[in-house]
Amino acid sequence: MSAYDDLMAHARETEALKQVLGRLGWDQETVMPRGAAAQRAEEMAAMEKVLHARRTDPRVGDWLNRAEPADEVQQAHVRELRREHERATRVPADLAAAIARTTSLAQGIWAETRAADDFAAFAPTLTEVLNLRRHEAAALAEGTDLYDALLDDYEPGETGASLSRIFDALRPRLVALRERILGSDRTPPKLSGRFDEATQMRLAADCARVFGYNFAHGRIDRAVHPFSSGQGLDSRITTRTDPENPFDCLYSTIHEVGHGSYEQNVDRAYLLTPLGTGASMGVHESQSRIYENQLARGRAFAGWLFAKLRETYGDIGVADADAFYAALNAVESGYIRTEADEVHYNLHILLRFDLERDLVRGALEVADLEEAWNSRFAADFGVAVDRPSNGVLQDVHWAVGLFGYFPTYTLGNVYAGCLFAAMQDGVPGWAAAMAEGDATPATGWLRERVQKHGSRYLPRDLVELASGAPISPEPLLSYLERKFGALYGL
């Protein structure tokens, strides 16, 4: 066997073990007994030590030096494995295990303190998680920016500065659009009634099928915070239900279907290889957001979903498909990121991006985080945070150490804007098909342009190749201004 063959054989086993660790995480958030948390933390720490040992194995470095990739795909494999090996060798094994153990325990503590609305009780745990990630960032950064070192885990090639340039272009027009909408004289209607939660789950499965989710290789479960897990032949999603708000369940599901379908649609030749997953969290988010927003919150699909809900529940408090479309896209200053409308959503992310960058860099400490959050939220949204579960405790990300993850949500929206502009030109019949409950023309275009490539291309390269244009926030902003201008008569 050549050095490249040895390298790939080792990588496939590592990827398989990585999926086992991911399954432990899925189980923890869905069906694990509450009393198993301490044992699960040790299990995940042990698995992380095994993975770290494999990634830092001296043979990997030797194989990388001697590998002679024969084509572009093999070059991409070597690129990804070299990046993984170099990052892993900078982080001590004990630190990697400690992060896995601590974040596993922190997830349960976060859920309990969130339910109790007690940030002070969670602060010591968050401080421990943050300190571990700061140590990891220092090992990875080697004297450069700590936040950039963590961001590279989720969005290779980006920096805090590069993201700030995009976000600085977004903020003024988002704020201006928000003010114009909230100052308009139009008040969108609201759904009314109670919506059986078991029925919501059946409707969620119907929506998942419309958007191409393959239940032979996936499943839907419930979780406090919806997420997706796995790849290839086993890609699972979760959702949540609210008897007064079916949109939360249905659109959380469609969002996660975007993630899950991406993983299911990666070229099977890449299965259990470094290319067998999404190119980055930003690209991943582009798929979930375009499924959820441009496609599922569009007028065409809204008409189909309105008929489905009326057939299932009877009177739902809105008279027709146009009123339903307006209700579905109502703009309100709410507390919760995952429930935010398209206009407010990125403002939620920009808040988190600035706060977490300060946390990692040491400009903000956990003891001052709640006050910093509440002050920034009041300034950005004009509303005072009433309790921690509506504020600093609402997201699980920091509890599980995902510092650097949040900005990929807004980057994903920017990518989605670029892709949607190209898709409209490339698939002229997509809207008519959506009106019939058929997302295949749109999702098929995304599968061929983006999803099947996995991690073969770097994130920006992939989106620019798919959309045929440089990355820019302009398509997203134009889409938002056009859509909500029409809805609110601006």
Short précis:
By secondary structure, this protein is an all-alpha fold. 65% of the residues lie in helices and 3% in strands.
Secondary structure elements and pairings:
Blueprint: H1 3-30, H2 37-55, H3 58-66, H4 72-90, H5 93-116, H6 119-141, H7 146-154, H8 160-182, H9 197-210, E1 220-222, E2 228-231, E3 234-239, H10 246-265, H11 281-295, H12 299-313, H13 321-328, H14 342-361, H15 369-381, H16 407-426, H17 430-435, H18 440-449, H19 459-467, H20 474-488
Parallel strand pairs: 1-3
Antiparallel strand pairs: 2-3
Helix pairs in contact: 1-2, 1-3, 2-5, 5-6, 6-7, 8-14, 8-20, 9-10, 10-11, 11-16, 12-13, 14-15, 14-16, 16-19, 16-20
User: Any low-confidence stretches, pLDDT <50, length ≥5?
Assistant: none
CA radius of gyration: 22 Å
Number of strands: 3
State which percent range the strand residues make up: under 5%
What is the CA–CA distance across the termini?
Answer: 66 Å
**Which overall shape is indicated by the principal axes computed on the Cα atoms?**
globular
What helical percentage do the residues reach?
55-70%
CATH architecture of the largest domain: Orthogonal Bundle
The CATH topology name of the largest domain reads: Neurolysin, domain 3
